[in-house]
Amino acid sequence: MKKIIKCGQLFTAEDESVQHNMCIVIEDNIIIDVIKENLCKDEGEVIDLTDKFIMPGLIDAHVHVCLDGSPTVDPMYHKLPEEVTISAMLEAKKDLMAGFTTIRDEGGVNFSDIAVKKAIDNKLIKGPRMFVSGPALTSIGGHGDSHFSPQILNASLGIVVNGADEARNAARLNLKYGADQIKLFATGGVMSFGDEPGAAELTFDEMKAALEIANLKGRISSAHAHGAEGIKNAIKAGVTSIEHGMLIDEEAMEMMVEHGVYLIPTIIAAERIIEFGKKGALPKWMAEKAEECLKNHGKHIKRMIDMGVKIGFGSDAGCAFDNHGDQGFEFELMTRYGFSPAGALLSATKVNSELLKLQNQIGTIQPGKLADIVGFDKNPLEDISVMTECSFVMKDGEVYKS
């Protein structure tokens, strides 16, 4: 049966323009036409959204469904693997209800992200389309490793690797169990105790070995990387996207342009840590690291926009006080940091679909694409804050929120 969506304002994300009084014609789960309303025949179920701003389903390229916004990751180690997976299902559904019809999970524990993806794909549960990593690769004492006593084993957020051979094995293991990409921890981080965000951790040889496996399989990859040296090492090793990139330098920016590497800036993650650190809800050392990372991030983002770096949308949802379902605030932050409202919307649609190599399926509202469509009660190009208030969600031709 056909569905006809009548749109008052339509942002197809093919470019920055907005069309008025349009119809989207859907058959099963595929968009078959986008035409003027006066040319549209009401042959099928009519969904009247003439009072809304309609655009493609949003894509968040950096979330962690195994995390629930708790101040630290420690509570997760008190849960059974099954509990973590059940919680992850609920967090993923929050993302869908916020308009994110596709998410890229940037590292889970016990392959929980892969389990949730399979359950969604098999229609056992409701959730967004998921692009998953499995556990990220890290180093001993690196971002993602734990600092528990030595006798406590298997308490790392990622897979700890030492040397190129172990990195290759870990990459193969993730792909074996259903990962779509390989995720690396190239530098220290903000929420991890005992390391520095600017310090390189995985070596070039370790990253090169892991990414060799990803590239052989035709898969993309990502690297958590704040510091310039770690960013450069990851780019040289062949990574697809840099996550955060808050302590980047000019040379690394130029390398991103040269190699076509994407940036996912995740402004909200540091902003939330600073906000709640001031309230005393987070350790002082964590807030201080976040402040150092965010200090020049806006200047760097503006520079990279001017240089033509491909910048996508990512929220790091699940990290401290960065709750799933609330990540629409990142759009407002992006406009504060140099993006036009339209540019911010494109980052979470067309740009991210290209990053994930899914541009033939999602990211724009065009004939032949999957019917991932969301709506807002106001025009975000006039008031970007409305992106926290999604009022209509269709994923794959099915309405989940109206």
UniProtKB/TrEMBL annotation:
It holds the Pfam family Amidohydro_1. GO terms for molecular function: hydrolase activity, acting on carbon-nitrogen (but not peptide) bonds. Keywords: Hydrolase. It comes from the Bacteria. Residues 53-399 form the Amidohydrolase-related domain. Signal peptide: none annotated. This is Amidohydrolase family protein. It comes from Coprococcus comes. The lineage of its organism: Bacteria, Bacillati, Bacillota, Clostridia, Lachnospirales.
